[in-house]
Specification:
The chain has helices at about 1-60, 65-80, 110-120, 160-210, 225-275, 280-315, 325-345, 360-380, 425-430, 435-445; strands spanning about 85-90, 95, 125-130, 140-145, 150-160, 320-325, 345-350, 355-360, 385-395, 395-405, 450-455, 460-470. It is α+β, with helices and mostly antiparallel strands and about 475 residues long. The structure holds adenosine-5'-triphosphate and magnesium ion.
Length: about 475
């Protein structure tokens, strides 16, 4: 739940911060826009009213209206617009007010700045308290008073702008309600999202704990294709790999124990027989020879295992040297000659080119060839041939070890590289193999950065092909 809580709260904080910031920005922009709009509208209205008053004044001047009628109409306009109306003479003195109670302003002149603008036949717009003459903020509009095609003063209209605040307050309330609803949605979404994130994580930690106790069969369910989904997939993959590794380890231990037990059992049996006097005289020597062979076998097994572990640990250091491949192969043949002859086989080297210099570790190359030729001899019946082949293939040299032996069944072909793999357990046992030879070969080829391949036909023969780096002469 810890994971969930913190993911949830983090998402929530992010959402709410984003919501609040965007709403504040929105409110500011909106109120600005709204105020501009409102004031422009109001101004246009007041200017229009000003022109109407101008007409009334014209009629009054022409004697079509009495002074009372003028006062009556101006007060009517004041009421309908909620705007205090002043008539001002060219010097800036107010000589008529639609609200007679305010006639105290009659004595003071209006600001020369404003008057100058109006007398130049321009419209003046101001917002505020009009030089402290009002107690509430007003929008003031001054329009020139035209009489006989001359500017004969000004008409000022002042309308309070408190109406706008009421409207804005309503807008803010709407925004606040919207924010509230959005926050509720944010909570729901954050909850859902955090669940989607935290569920696989929780599952992974559960599976990880099971893995720690050796159970590798549990999996994390993944539906999402996002980063968490990918993590879960990688996690499952890791679990599977670890499971395989664990299986391999168990199998390996079982194999090693098995390989150790059979020679030890026979050694123990023969020695016990000799000690108990059951095996006597001449037989003793014969059985001790078997015991000696079995100890050799054990020795080989242990050496091979240590060798493999050493290569796999990466501690092996390759000692690269320039080696003439054909001479090297001939040398190998010479070393195996006694066994070849003893089994009634023939062996030869097919060299494509006279000289082929390779850059390799001679000890490791010998180890590889000894294993391959040893196999070829073991699995080829008397009378048949073994052929070593060397080839020049551009930047690489290719070595082939071919025999006319029993071959390897198709389905076993890829398994022979595994440790303790033997195609025919019983038959190989009699030949003293443990199934580590090719595993060592493969590992050596890999650390040298080369490749090895095998093709085989059952009953016809087997062919191992590997590459070596060519050296510049
Ligand atoms: N040339 C070959 N012809 C037929 N089968 C082969 C040949 N080389 C290898 N195999 C098969 O592959 C198996 C694995 O070979 P590998 O060299 O790893 O083990 P091994 O020879 O049985 O034992 P070790 O090499 O440890 O003494 C052999 O047991 C054999 O069944
Ligand atoms: Mg072998």
């Amino acid at each position: 739940m810890q994971v969930f809580r913190s993911i949830f709260s983090r998402l929530m904080t992010t959402y709410i911060v984003v919501i609040v910031i965007s709403l504040i920005v929105l409110s500011l922009l909106f109120s600005q826009l709204f105020q501009n709009f409102y004031l422009t509208e109001r101004k246009n209205e007041l200017v229009k009213a000003g022109r109407r008053i101008n007409n009334i004044m014209l009629k009054y001047r022409q004697g079509q209206m009495s002074r009372e009628e003028v006062g009556f109409m101006i007060r009517g306009i004041d009421r309908s617009l909620n705007a205090e109306i002043w008539l001002v003479d060219p010097t800036g003195l107010v000589y008529l007010d639609s609200r007679p109670g305010d006639e105290k302003w009659f004595v003071s002149h209006l600001e020369p700045e404003d008057m100058k603008q109006v007398l130049a036949a321009d419209v003046v717009t101001r917002t505020g308290f009009f030089g402290n003459r009002f107690e509430v903020a007003v929008i003031s509009v001054g329009v020139p008073l035209f009489l006989d095609n001359k500017v004969a003063g000004a008409i000022f209209l002042h309308s309070p702008i408190y109406g706008i605040h009421g409207t804005l307050r309503q807008v803010y309330r709407l925004i606040f309600i919207a924010a509230f609803i959005t926050c509720i949605f944010a909570i729901i979404i954050a909850y859902y999202m955090s669940q989607r994130i935290s569920k696989p994580l929780q599952q992974m930690s559960k599976v990880a704990i099971e893995m720690a106790s050796g159970k590798f069969d549990k999996k994390v369910n993944v539906r999402e294709k996002d980063e968490i989904g990918q993590l879960a997939l990688s996690f499952n993959f890791m679990a599977q790999e670890l499971g395989q590794l664990e299986n391999m380890r168990r199998e390996f231990i079982a194999n090693v124990s098995h390989e150790l037990r059979s020679p030890l059992t026979s050694i123990k049996g023969f020695i016990q027989g000799i000690l108990d006097g059951i095996i006597s005289g001449d037989d003793q020597k014969r059985y001790l020879k078997i015991v000696s062979e079995e100890t050799n076998r054990l020795n080989r097994l242990i050496n091979d295992l240590l060798n493999l572990a050493w290569i796999e640990s990466g501690k092996i250091e390759l000692n690269y040297q320039k080696v003439e491949l054909n001479a090297f192969l001939r040398n190998i043949i010479v070393k195996f000659m006694p066994r070849i002859e003893e089994k009634g086989l023939t062996i030869r080297l097919d060299a494509e080119v006279e000289r082929c210099i390779v850059n390799t570790d001679p000890d490791r190359l010998e180890q590889i060839l000894v294993n391959l030729v040893d196999n070829a001899i073991k699995f080829t019946p008397p009378g048949k041939s073994i052929i070593l082949e060397s080839q020049d293939a551009g930047s690489k040299a290719v070595v082939r070890v071919m025999d006319q032996g029993v071959g390897i069944p198709e389905e076993q072909l890829q398994k022979i590289w595994e440790r303790f793999s033997k195609v025919d357990k019983a038959r190989t046992r009699s030949k003293g193999g443990t199934g580590l030879g090719l595993a060592i070969v493969k590992k050596l080829i890999e650390v040298m950065g080369e490749t090895i391949e095998v093709t085989s036909t059952e009953g016809r023969g087997t062919e191992f092909t590997f590459t070596l780096a060519k050296a510049e002469e």
